[in-house]
Write a sequence for this structure.
């Protein structure tokens, strides 16, 4: 499959908002055994957040002086600080519930994380995205000054499915890429 | 889209001390107890961008309050004969200042209760505050009778503009 090109005019910088991280998880429904899939955009009130790939690399040099670099693995993470407790935030409520019960096992692999590169694709044809199944979100601290801050870190599973989403909204449909 | 200036006027008119006076926007007829709302350019544009595309912006305005001036000196607080109580004479100027202070206190109370102007859909007020604790005395207009003192206070409203957010609200 050919590499899709960036949908910006030549030299135009991609606005930060075009790189979108979305968390998806299942929440139990009250009074039933069922559950509800919830999605939330990450980054509200966060000014700066990047995916750190934390690559494990091994460099070696042969007797001719040529360097070789092996990339053994990546362990991508993305920190969101501040992650403020905000009215209407389902993720804030969900993580706080886990925090107060110290139910750490409920964090492990509980999230599907979508990274949407909205600078590739468009409204009509959808936007390129990748889906990281069984990812983990951890909370780092709880408190702050004027507002309650609950900074989190997303730990990507690297169980990646590439595809596209039809829109940038909570009810997007993710369609897996088809290899021909 | 809601006009922010009108939203500020609507909000301020819920303040009893303002609603009971004649209120003018940017231009006024200076008279005792008349109030003027003035929009201001910010010293520094806030314009803090977040990764979801929303932007924190600032709206700044001033309220000018004209009050008649009392030129009588403050008498010495002499003890009432036979008691340790002092006379409780208060200058009209002090009372006027206290009354103007009441508007600032009202703004602060509304902010504490998170009762903010309504900037409409896509906008969330983050914070509202007066830029000082007391009204500023800008000067006295002696060309009118009675002379008018000009008190002012500045108010900053920080609001989140979500209209540029990439995430569509369902």
């Amino acid at each position: 499959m050919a590499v899709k090109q960036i949908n910006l005019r030549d030299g135009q910088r991609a606005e930060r908002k075009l790189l979108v991280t979305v968390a998806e998880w299942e929440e139990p429904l009250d009074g039933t055994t069922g559950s509800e899939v919830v999605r939330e955009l990450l980054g509200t009130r966060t000014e700066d957040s990047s995916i750190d790939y934390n690559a494990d690399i091994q460099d070696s040099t042969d007797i001719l002086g040529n360097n070789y670099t092996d990339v053994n693995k990546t362990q991508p993470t993305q920190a969101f600080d501040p992650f403020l407790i905000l009215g209407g935030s389902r993720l804030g409520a969900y993580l706080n519930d886990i925090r107060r019960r110290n139910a750490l096992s409920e964090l492990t692999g509980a999230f599907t994380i979508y990274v949407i590169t909205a600078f590739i694709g468009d409204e009509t044809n959808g936007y390129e995205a990748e889906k990281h199944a069984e990812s983990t979100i951890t909370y780092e601290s709880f408190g702050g000054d004027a507002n309650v801050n609950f900074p989190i870190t997303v730990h990507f599973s690297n169980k990646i499915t590439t595809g596209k989403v039809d829109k940038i909204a909570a009810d997007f449909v993710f369609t897996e890429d088809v290899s021909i | 889209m809601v006009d922010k200036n009108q939203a500020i006027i609507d909000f301020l008119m819920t303040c009893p001390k303002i609603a009971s006076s004649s209120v003018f926007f940017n231009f006024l007829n200076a008279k005792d107890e008349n109030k003027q709302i003035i929009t201001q350019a910010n010293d520094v544009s806030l314009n803090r961008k977040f990764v979801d595309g929303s932007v924190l912006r600032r709206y700044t305005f001033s309220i000018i309050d004209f009050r008649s001036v009392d030129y009588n000196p403050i008498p010495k607080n002499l003890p009432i004969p036979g008691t340790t109580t002092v006379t409780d004479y208060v200058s009209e100027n002090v009372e006027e200042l206290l009354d103007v202070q009441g508007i600032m206190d009202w703004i602060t109370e509304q902010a504490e209760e998170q009762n903010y102007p309504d900037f409409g859909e896509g906008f969330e007020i983050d914070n509202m505050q007066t830029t000082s604790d007391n009204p500023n005395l800008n000067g006295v207009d002696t060309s009118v009778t009675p002379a008018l003192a000009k008190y002012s206070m500045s108010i900053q409203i920080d609001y989140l503009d979500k209209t540029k957010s990439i995430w569509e609200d369902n």
Remarks:
- The interface with chain A takes residues 48-54, 160, 164-170 of chain B (CB under 8 Å).
- Strands of chain B lie at 23-25, 35-40, 48-49, 55-68, 123-130, 136-141, 148-161.
- The two ends of chain B are 19 Å apart (CA to CA).
- Residues 34 and 129 of chain B are 22 Å apart (CA to CA).
